[in-house]
Write a structure and sequence with these properties.
homodimer, alpha/beta, 2 domains, 4-stranded parallel beta sheet, globular
């Protein structure tokens, strides 16, 4: 297990600077009144390819030597990591082949194709996608870039909290949604070196509460096929992210599907920005757990803005 | 007719600074590729009360002497000027009474109430709303603040272009949607003093093309009851805005309802920000009239972000 260090984060930040945005940090008076906290939103919905995933993907892709890069890259992902990897590969001028489940959203598939990525369909199960990737690696020699259980990816995602901590002094807490845990792991890594007093919280859907249960149990627990509107948060922790999450996360806060949708709508209505349901999970947790955050300065990572505008969750609810 | 000067704009900018945002200017690589222009979006959708209208309303409200202010303010408006005036009045601690047509959007009515404004319903016709306002002024002595045909309002809206021109050098063109013409007039006023080489364009829905027809005819032409998805742009020019528009606007560009909706969706999808249909009219014009803007540096004012999330125009189309 290759555990990334903060040196890796600094290298990553230099490496990806040319290919990623330093995303803006926004505040909103209505949300501050609502929560009693001083909330600072790191807007990764404005990131290249529409999500923080561009950071880890660019770090992995631009860290390859020329010979490895020439064989292309591959991954399995139902969403933002897929398009981020396609984006990074296109910038480097190499091939990206992405294994996507047949039930992945049309918008996210379209994004992969926009960046010139190749999609390989597979059944929506862990075994099917792993088999598909293994076959692809065997045939092409492409470099596999796991969506989160990869030291290069975690070091890349860690640059998000690095930018936020560089811009904002005295952050009492930092909260991000947790799926596989790449962003939360990176945030823990940065915070340990740059701002040890900042507490890191993770927010998770009740209907995909595997990280919460893992923390309770002291070992990784994974759900078979969780179903939540926060489609980026269905995947379980793996050894590398478990390393960070189990040691450095202050607490994991759960929110219901209704709370996620309401928070997403609140952000659109009041902040006038487009965020996807997974982003709203962190906002929902801050709105729900007022006693944890009131009176505090809190960084909230809005992870992405890739939404199917024809299927908004409040239209069907 | 009291024609505002750039001195009035400078006074306005100081007066409203405490109550309005200096809104951000965003760029987007996809939209640049699409149009061949260097587009800089002045994001008034992030403005207080969700639209540039807060500028003019705050200038009018905070410019009143104490005695006049004590009798409150009033206006007629189907939308953003109404909530902007209620917002400004609330900040000053005075009463705002707004005459709104019975067919005004529920979201925009709710915004007025949120800021503590009082709504007086009227039939959706010019004569009905003018009668209702006249009665209110007679009864209460409230100061009437016209949505656009008012020198204080135009001077306030002019601060938007002032900020943009302070932030961006060498703007070849500036484009904004046109309804009553308050924002376009203010933009002309600022540009005449600060950047005479910058050409001002107005964008208008084909289905509410009264400003376009007025320019052709050389006199104000108004439609009886135009119907467009860009609900902020249904009102006609008046003498004060005609003064600026007839003299200083380079051209008025027309766009169809389909083009407006497509541009709105494009901004949401690619820029990840929530803009209302009226804002999208300017974007649609830039996308449509490529020959006018290609190779140029163009400021585009995104006027507002107040949208009914339950009735998005592409859901019904």
């Amino acid at each position: 297990m290759h555990i990334p260090t903060f040196d890796d984060v600094e290298v990553a930040h230099k490496r990806i600077g040319q290919w990623t945005h330093r995303s803006p940090v926004l505040a909103n008076s209505h949300l501050n009144e609502l929560t009693g906290a001083n909330l600072l939103f790191k807007c990764e919905n404005f990131q290249k390819a529409g999500a923080f995933k561009a950071r880890g993907a660019c770090n992995a892709v631009f860290g390859l030597d020329d010979e490895a890069a020439s064989r292309g890259v591959t991954t399995h992902s139902s969403g933002n990591h897929a398009s981020a990897l396609a984006y990074a590969a296109a910038r480097r001028g190499i091939r990206a082949s992405v294994v996507m489940p047949t039930n992945a959203s049309a918008t996210k598939k379209a994004a992969v194709l926009t960046y010139g990525g190749q999609i390989i369909d597979c059944e929506p199960s862990a075994s099917a996608r792993e088999a598909a990737v293994a076959e692809l690696v065997a045939n092409t020699g492409a470099a596999f870039v796991h969506p989160y259980n990869d030291h290069r990816v975690i070091a890349g995602q860690a640059t998000c909290a690095k930018e936020l901590l560089e811009e904002v002094d005295g952050l009492d807490a930092l909260i991000a949604p947790i799926g596989g845990g790449g962003l939360v792991s990176g945030s823990c890594l940065t915070r340990s070196v740059r701002s040890p007093k900042t507490k890191v919280y993770a927010a998770e859907p009740e209907k995909a509460d595997d990280a919460y249960l893992s923390m309770k149990a002291g070992k990784i627990i994974s759900h078979d096929a969780p179903d939540t509107v926060a489609d980026g948060l269905k995947v379980p922790l793996k050894d590398l992210t478990w390393h960070f999450v189990s040691r450095y996360v202050e607490d994991i806060l759960l929110v219901s599907e209704r709370e996620i949708i309401d928070a997403m709508r609140l952000v659109w209505q009041r902040m006038k920005i487009v965020v996807e349901p997974s982003s709203a999970v962190a906002v929902a947790a801050v709105c729900k757990s007022k006693e944890v955050f009131a009176g505090k300065t809190v960084g909230v990572i809005l992870t992405g803005g890739n939404v199917d505008l024809d299927a908004l969750p409040w239209s069907s609810s």
